[in-house]
């Protein structure tokens, strides 16, 4: 099981001559890549840097000495002493001929084609093609029966249109779908002249990465409704930005038009260290929410029982006055704040300074949807989540272990990375979850442990490792600290056999380079501290981080940034010191985290709340309790893009500018600071969060920063502190807490994001709504059979805390007594079913008849 | 004495000669036009105000490809495409600012769909600037067309270039 690790012995190099230029490349490189590396351009259609070569289009012809015919450079390996010519007459003749053949069937409908102006075929024909046409027979035409369109366009997915006449059969779409995304919903059918690309029979191209197919199609065969017939590409300008729906921070490029102050589309801005040029549909179409007509346009203020639009000055002055009043009468301990971890660094730091310096409280947090946060600041989980992680290292890992994560929904970018590692190396991939997940299709083996036995499973892994290799240090010390302390009973409790645990332990012990990913099943669990302690033990025993990386991955675009800037009541001591130095002081009080603030609110001991870009009423577990909590508040000010469940309860609502409307910096899960430039001017009267906070602080006569420079310098200084917490010095106690289970509620409920949505905002993006417009109950085929329901039937889901109704979607991956419910839709708020106190959310379902 | 004689000859002989010329012109056809009551037909390739062609069945020829706007040296053309229910491409907004236009005819030359033509119309003075922005609806030829004087020319051009008149 060896792979190309970075520490391999030097690769053999070969030297060849391209256009009289001597080029040295590692053995195995294609002639095309050698030429590109040397800055020599060779036209291509079917070649893609991240896919295997197929040599389908033959436009990349080059002349190689001693070879009788022209060769396709993208599929020819460079060898020593090769003499390559890329611009000789015979090559030019070859290209002309290839273009002529391609154009034999390609319609000349460029005026109506959406790709016009950025089409590879247009460009190459202009550069290399014949001036005249020698064909005078009819072109092949694929007619769509029943659709009276002159262009023969066919809708093959919620967003994607296919024009088979224009297709040049480069297979890039089919290949990328299969190789890079592992999806089979588009394929090539028939043969010879009748060959066509089409959606798989009876299916729609609707996978969460489908937008990429449109982006890489070299011609206008695949287009999407998002950009289709909106504007010509040469009339737009581009702005580099960052995907803020994903914690990896994929690099994207906005196409916008300045006069219209509008973004028209998103394409990827390939960054090999992060995204390899593939972005999710959420990243691609998510920008649409910026232009949603539902955006908040003006500040709103509660007058009487209604919220009425007011001017900024009035709203800001009112907020400053009310906060000062509450501060005077009740003290700053009675004010709290929540900021979304998708805000930029400037906003987050302004927020921290506003809460701590202007108001003087430590009641602030960015963890807006976790259940039961730890009381202690330096917990095992904070160790685990602060560990360094590098996305590109996944490529060269030989053991990849995904623990408690449905990657497609949580970390789609890393999912694609693992797939790539499997395509180009031979890693062992394990996916371990308490229920079957889609992303397990990249795994060699999928293990399912019994619900709520994460820590028992990890303990079992430790015990298996000791049994496999009794020489591991501290084995006895560990056994004393964990229960159950013998392998067989651990295996029995967690439901994974002792043999499997041993096999897993063996690969962890023998792996040369390990990537261990810990996902939301752990991060969001009530007992995340116990599980994290078990994982710390495992790492101490087997030494995973000495041969690779292990981390609970950040969940939002700027989670790491918020953590580093100290947006928690009790930040890392280094951060605290840096902030004290900068501000000449730091609030003395202990401060409450999200959970703590909510209970204080319920007790009536916290009266005012400042919320930036978050919707806890809809996202925090236990909808009813949170709503009740918020009703107790004296004063609530919320800044957001849209009216939400939380803004509905607010005294003042401020329109927030989205990430496209100002330049901001974000820290991705690797700790990489990336900048999203301003694409458009803020729409309506919205303002970035840092500007809002600066205004309020100025109105309170306690200005935050004297200049933007000062703010940046402060951020610079705080970010310079390390927040990586050291692994604990000894084995930690791991005693599994009891699992509460009521036989009346036999089914496990999983709540998460739909693959086409993220949090509560994306339902405002029209294209994403086309993929999924409403909540659904995804249940396993067994359950569907048991309750005699089919796709679309309504079922009632009931837990001890609430109930709701939603249509059924029979799952292709779930098995057993598990249902999944997306949390992204305002009509069906999933958080009403769950409690903050429960480890597992148990529900029962029944069919709604009629 | 001699001078007096000369003057008399001038008066009685040359002056009537002049009058005869005048008199002749009174009965001749005038060379000037009684504009605006009377108008002169322009040359067939005169470049006047634009008009937008239709197919025989009345659909607009223009597909809003943007090439005319790209070719326009005066940046006088603005357009916004849209999708028809059939999934075809057509202009939602198509405007020419006639104050910016220099009547070069490049748009006509650029058009791949033979949709835009510079016509014979040259009278479009007005009192405010806004009325010089001609919209698509203003420029489209009526359908069914009433005696289109340009049809013959278009047909001829098509014949010369061997373009079949796309029957729809
Ligand atoms: S649809 Fe586009 S990407 Fe797919 S084979 Fe045809 S030309 Fe290539
Ligand atoms: S005639 Fe010339 S200046 Fe006028 S709209 Fe056409 S291209 Fe532009
Ligand atoms: S008039 Fe002709 S060139 Fe201009 S947009 Fe329409 S089809 Fe294109
Ligand atoms: S790019 Fe080499 S054959 Fe297509």
UniProtKB/TrEMBL annotation, chain A:
Domain annotation 4Fe-4S Mo/W bis-MGD-type: ranges: 236-294
Catalytic reaction list: a quinone + NADH + 5 H(+)(in) = a quinol + NAD(+) + 4 H(+)(out)
GO cellular component terms attached to this protein's record: membrane
Entries under PROSITE patterns matching the protein: 2FE2S_FER_2 (PS51085), 4FE4S_HC3 (PS51839), 4FE4S_MOW_BIS_MGD (PS51669), COMPLEX1_75K_1 (PS00641), COMPLEX1_75K_2 (PS00642), MOLYBDOPTERIN_PROK_2 (PS00490)
2Fe-2S ferredoxin-type domain segment(s): 12-90
Pfam family, one: NADH-G_4Fe-4S_3
Entries under SUPFAM superfamilies matching the protein: 2Fe-2S ferredoxin-like (SSF54292), ADC-like (SSF50692), Formate dehydrogenase/DMSO reductase, domains 1-3 (SSF53706)
Cofactor(s) of this protein: [2Fe-2S] cluster; [4Fe-4S] cluster
Coiled-coil residue windows: none
GO molecular function (one): 4 iron, 4 sulfur cluster binding
Entries under InterPro entries matching the protein: 2Fe-2S_ferredoxin-like_sf, 2Fe-2S_ferredoxin-type, Asp_de-COase-like_dom_sf, MoPterin_dinucl-bd_dom, Mopterin_OxRdtase, Mopterin_OxRdtase_4Fe-4S_dom, Mopterin_OxRdtase_prok_CS, NADH_UbQ_OxRdtase_75kDa_su_CS
Keywords in alphabetical order: 2Fe-2S, 4Fe-4S, Iron, Iron-sulfur, Metal-binding, NAD, Quinone, Translocase
Entry's family note: Belongs to the complex I 75 kDa subunit family.
PANTHER family recorded: NADH-QUINONE OXIDOREDUCTASE SUBUNIT G (PTHR43105:SF12), RESPIRATORY NITRATE REDUCTASE (PTHR43105)
UniProt protein name: NADH dehydrogenase (Quinone) subunit G
UniProtKB/TrEMBL annotation, chain B:
PROSITE patterns listed in its UniProt record: 4FE4S_FER_1 (PS00198), 4FE4S_FER_2 (PS51379)
Cofactor: [4Fe-4S] cluster
Protein name: NADH-quinone oxidoreductase subunit I
Family of this protein: Belongs to the complex I 23 kDa subunit family.
Biological source species: candidate division GN15 bacterium
Function: NDH-1 shuttles electrons from NADH, via FMN and iron-sulfur (Fe-S) centers, to quinones in the respiratory chain. The immediate electron acceptor for the enzyme in this species is believed to be ubiquinone. Couples the redox reaction to proton translocation (for every two electrons transferred, four hydrogen ions are translocated across the cytoplasmic membrane), and thus conserves the redox energy in a proton gradient.
Residues where [4Fe-4S] cluster 1 binds: 62, 65, 68, 111
4Fe-4S ferredoxin-type domain location: 53-82, 92-121
BP GO annotations: aerobic respiration
EC numbers for this chain: 7.1.1.-
Top-tier EC class: translocase
Keyword S-adenosyl-L-methionine: no
Record keywords: 4Fe-4S, Cell membrane, Iron, Iron-sulfur, Membrane, Metal-binding, NAD, Quinone, Translocase, Ubiquinone
Annotated catalysed reactions: a quinone + NADH + 5 H(+)(in) = a quinol + NAD(+) + 4 H(+)(out)
Membrane topology of this protein: Peripheral membrane protein
């Amino acid at each position: 099981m060896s792979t190309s690790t970075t520490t391999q012995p030097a690769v053999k190099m070969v030297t060849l001559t391209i256009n009289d230029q001597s080029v040295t490349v590692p053995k195995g490189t294609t002639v095309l890549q050698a030429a590109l590396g040397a800055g020599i351009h060779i036209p291509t259609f079917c070649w893609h840097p991240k896919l295997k070569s197929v040599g389908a289009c033959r436009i990349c012809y080059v002349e190689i000495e001693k070879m009788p015919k022209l060769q396709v450079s993208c599929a020819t390996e460079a060898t020593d002493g090769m003499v390559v010519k890329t611009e000789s007459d015979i090559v030019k003749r070859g290209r002309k001929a290839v273009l002529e053949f391609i154009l034999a069937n390609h319609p000349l409908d460029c005026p109506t084609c959406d790709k016009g102006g950025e089409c590879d075929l247009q460009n190459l024909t202009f550069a290399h093609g014949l001036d005249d046409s020698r064909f005078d027979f009819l072109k092949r035409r694929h007619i769509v029966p029943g659709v009276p369109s002159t262009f023969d366009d066919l809708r093959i997915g919620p967003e994607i249109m296919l024009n088979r006449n224009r297709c040049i059969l480069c297979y890039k779409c089919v290949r990328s779908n299969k190789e890079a995304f592992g999806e089979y919903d588009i394929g090539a059918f028939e043969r010879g002249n009748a060959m066509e690309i089409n959606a798989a029979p009876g299916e729609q191209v609707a996978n969460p990465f489908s937008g990429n197919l449109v982006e890489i199609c070299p011609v206008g065969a695949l287009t999407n409704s998002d950009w289709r017939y909106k504007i010509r590409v040469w009339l737009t300008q581009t702005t580099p930005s960052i995907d803020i729906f994903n914690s990896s921070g994929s690099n994207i490029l906005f196409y916008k038009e300045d006069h219209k102050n509008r973004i028209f589309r998103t394409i990827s801005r390939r960054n090999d260290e992060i995204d390899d040029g593939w972005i999710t549909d959420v990243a691609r179409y998510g920008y649409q929410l910026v232009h949603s007509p539902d955006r908040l346009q003006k500040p709103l203020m509660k007058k009487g029982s209604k919220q009425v639009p007011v001017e900024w000055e009035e709203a800001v002055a009112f907020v400053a006055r009310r906060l000062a009043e509450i501060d005077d009468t009740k003290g700053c301990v009675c004010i709290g704040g929540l900021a979304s971890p998708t805000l930029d660094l400037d906003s987050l730091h302004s927020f921290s300074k506003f809460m701590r310096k202007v108001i003087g409280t430590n009641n602030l947090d960015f963890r807006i949807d976790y259940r039961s946060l730890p009381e202690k600041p330096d917990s095992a989980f904070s160790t685990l989540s602060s560990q360094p992680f590098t996305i590109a290292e996944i490529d060269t890992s030989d053991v990849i272990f995904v623990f408690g994560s449905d990657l497609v929904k949580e970390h789609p970018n890393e999912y694609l990375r693992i797939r790539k590692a499997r395509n180009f190396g031979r890693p062992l991939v394990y996916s371990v979850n308490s229920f079957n997940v889609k992303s397990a299709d990249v795994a060699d083996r999928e293990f399912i442990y019994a619900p709520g036995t994460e820590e028992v499973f990890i303990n079992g892994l430790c015990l298996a490792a000791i049994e496999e290799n009794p020489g591991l240090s501290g084995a006895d010390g560990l056994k004393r600290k964990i229960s159950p302390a013998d392998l067989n009973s651990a295996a029995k409790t967690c439901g994974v056999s002792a043999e499997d645990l041993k096999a897993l332990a063996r690969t962890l012990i023998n792996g040369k380079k390990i990537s261990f990913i810990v996902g939301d099943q752990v991060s969001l669990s009530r007992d995340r501290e116990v599980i994290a302690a078990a994982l710390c033990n495992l790492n101490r025993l087997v030494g995973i981080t000495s041969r690779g990386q292990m981390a609970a991955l950040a969940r939002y675009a700027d989670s790491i940034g918020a953590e580093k800037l100290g947006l928690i009541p009790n930040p890392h001591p280094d951060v605290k010191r840096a902030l004290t130095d900068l501000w000449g002081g730091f609030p003395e009080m202990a401060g409450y985290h999200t959970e703590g603030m909510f209970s204080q609110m319920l007790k009536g001991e916290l009266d005012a709340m400042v919320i930036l870009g978050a919707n806890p009423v809809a996202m925090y577990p236990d909808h009813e309790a949170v709503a009740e909590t918020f009703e107790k508040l004296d004063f609530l000010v919320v800044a957001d893009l849209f009216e939400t469940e939380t803004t509905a309860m607010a005294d003042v609502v401020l329109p927030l500018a989205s990430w496209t409307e100002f330049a901001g910096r974000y820290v991705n899960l690797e700790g990489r600071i990336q900048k999203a430039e301003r694409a458009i001017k803020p729409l309506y009267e919205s303002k970035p969060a840092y500007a809002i906070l600066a205004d309020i602080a100025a109105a309170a006569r306690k200005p935050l920063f004297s200049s933007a420079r000062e703010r940046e310098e402060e951020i610079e200084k705080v970010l310079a502190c390390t927040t990586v917490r050291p692994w604990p010095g000894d084995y930690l106690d791991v005693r599994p807490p009891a699992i509460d289970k009521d036989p009346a509620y036999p089914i496990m409920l999983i709540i998460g994001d739909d693959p086409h949505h993220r949090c509560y905002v994306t339902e405002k993006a029209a294209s994403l709504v086309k993929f999924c417009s409403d909540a659904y109950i995804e249940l396993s085929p067994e359950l569907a059979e048991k309750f005699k329901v089919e796709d679309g039937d309504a079922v009632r889901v009931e837990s001890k805390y609430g109930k709701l109704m939603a249509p059924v979607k029979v799952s292709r991956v779930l098995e057993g007594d598990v249902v999944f419910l997306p949390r992204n839709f305002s009509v069906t708020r999933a958080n009403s079913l769950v409690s903050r106190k429960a480890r597992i959310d148990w529900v029962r379902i029944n069919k709604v008849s009629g | 004495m001699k001078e007096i004689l000369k003057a008399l000859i001038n008066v009685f002989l040359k002056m009537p000669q002049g009058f005869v010329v005048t008199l002749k012109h009174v009965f001749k056809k005038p060379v000037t036009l009684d504009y605006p009551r009377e108008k002169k037909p322009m040359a067939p390739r005169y470049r006047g105000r634009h008009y937008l062609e239709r197919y025989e069945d009345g659909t607009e020829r223009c597909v809003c490809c943007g090439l005319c706007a790209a070719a326009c040296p005066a940046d006088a053309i603005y357009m916004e495409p849209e999708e028809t229910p059939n999934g075809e491409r057509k202009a939602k907004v198509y405007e020419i600012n006639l104050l910016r236009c220099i009547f070069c005819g490049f748009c006509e030359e650029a058009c791949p769909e033979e949709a835009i033509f510079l016509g014979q119309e040259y009278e479009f003075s007005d009192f405010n600037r806004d009325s010089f922005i001609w919209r698509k609806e203003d420029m489209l030829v009526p359908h069914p067309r009433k005696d289109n004087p340009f049809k013959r020319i278009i047909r001829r051009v098509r014949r010369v270039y061997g373009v079949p008149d796309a029957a729809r």
